[in-house]
Amino acid sequence: MSIRKQKTMQRYGPGTRANHWGMAIAFILLALSGLAFFQPQFFFLSNTLGGPVWARVLHPFIGVVLFMLFVIIAVRQYRHNLLMENDVKWMKQIGDVLNNRDDNLPPIGKYNPGQKMVFWALVVSIPVLLLTGVIMWRPWFAGFFPIPLIRFASLVHALAAFVAIATIIVHIYAAIWVKGSIRAMTRGRVTHAWAKHHHPLWYEEEMEKPEQRAGEEGKEQHDSQLNRSMESPGHDGRTSG
Amino acid sequence: MVNSQNIVARSATTLPAPHVRDDVVEVAKLIDVSRCIGCKACQVACMEWNDLRDDVGECHGVYDNPMDLSAESWTVMRFNEVDVDAVHDNAEGDKELAWLIRKDGCMHCAEPGCLEACPAPGAIVKYANGIVDFDSNNCIGCGYCITGCPFDIPRISEKDSKSYKCTLCSDRVAVGLEPACVKACPTNCIEFGSKKDMLARAEKRVNDLQQRGYAHPGVYDPQGVGGTHVMYVLSHADQPGLYSGLPKDPRISPMVSAWKGVTKPIMSAILGITAFAGFFHFITKGPKEEPTDEEVFGDDEDHNSGDRDDGQDDGRHQHSHEEDRS
Ligand code: HEM
Ligand code: SF4
Ligand code: SF4
Q: Which residues form a coiled coil (chain A) (predicted)?
């Protein structure tokens, strides 16, 4: 049954989608250029940014862009990423999750604990990368810092980058693994079935809104008043973006 | 880079560099600080031979000029006035003023922190004769060499964003000449030869100084970096810090070793394993297929996709009515 024939609901507004893919591009470029300096076997990756010197020049600037985009998304999504009771139960059943036995999982909200861990790992690592990255940044900033601090920053930057890249590998795989997820970030919408199956509490919450219940893109535009009902802070429906 | 066939270590390179012509003696420059008169002939010779012209600076009221190493000043004389134990007879406990002058520049470490840290393949090389050379052609200007060096030597040029430092005149040494500073020094304070010979000379100089009454003269050939190919004879070897902050026990910082050591291959491996784990999980367990309405909602009217009748259908979806009654 194709998506067109299932009821769908909005998961990410156009602003959030643009933000996400901006970050995705920035992150890939950062990982490629960063890994080139990280380990000799990866040095060839620096060619993807136009050669090793360009990679060195561009990496920190792209990092700043990534950081700014991340702040926006983090502020908008953090309340959906607070741990709740069922999350612990869900984590205990991680074996079922990995084996695709979803039926007995406790109901969870907009994000599952795995997604929340990705979120918090990035909330920690990206600001750390910015701070340490600025300390290492030549020729602009490194000169203002004592060399022992630059050494420490370099070590921490490498560790934080490792954490961030490992996290993003998991994140990308999860999107491939859980069918129906990628469309949430490309087209903005998921099927009602997907939402109820993977994020039941979020689904119930959204079903309070007529335009989400209507299940079709564009339905909400019939009623401009609906926009007002969607103004809860951090909401990432049509208003976010 | 003068000799490409006797490279014993090469930055960011995991396989051996070409070193078939490595049957050469290790060289060393010996700087006998006790004989230096601070004339800066070596500084001038360095500019001259290497065609370097640093900006003309300002007088800061001290002898140091320029005040620090730069991409165009690969060696500088550092002047320091300190109170030290007096050396004349029966001077027990007396202090006297000493004017300590040290020619600062790259030490050409046997275990160079700059080379350890550099991420650009071949930007830093160590020749079999012990000289550590920057091949600035491969330099990307990241400054990791500055981070790695225990002596704070390399400097990034404002002109081209490449890193520079003393080459120990690798170009001259390769054709059997001594470095330019050695040639220019009027007091023979700087000497050049095989490391073995230079250590022997240093030994002799230390004996002389001892006879002159110095309590702790010594050779500065710090073993923390495996020894260096630029060595000092110091009158006060127990306190190298007196000589404008020469480090007492320099070694590659543990922070740098932790950054550049085993952690990197381990982290790289874990990243690879994570990616493969995902791949094999997909191959063995398969994806979480997208749930159908029937699976999730059963007979729930609202999601019986064919019977959607909310009175708002504007006709765009009519086509689905027939096909969907399954
Ligand atoms: C957030 C702002 C960031 C800034 C300002 C920044 C800055 C820097 C700087 C200055 C360097 C040294 C090389 C160079 O000069 O280009 C560097 C290296 C590196 N960066 Fe970043 N970066 C940032 C974010 C990131 C992110 C998000 C990642 C991960 C995808 C990353 C991964 C790396 C890696 C792996 C290295 C090499 C570290 C090493 O040599 O051990 N950076 N970064
Ligand atoms: S003194 Fe510094 S720049 Fe010179 S070889 Fe040693 S680590 Fe490298
Ligand atoms: S600045 Fe140049 S020589 Fe120094 S570590 Fe970076 S690439 Fe190597």
A: none
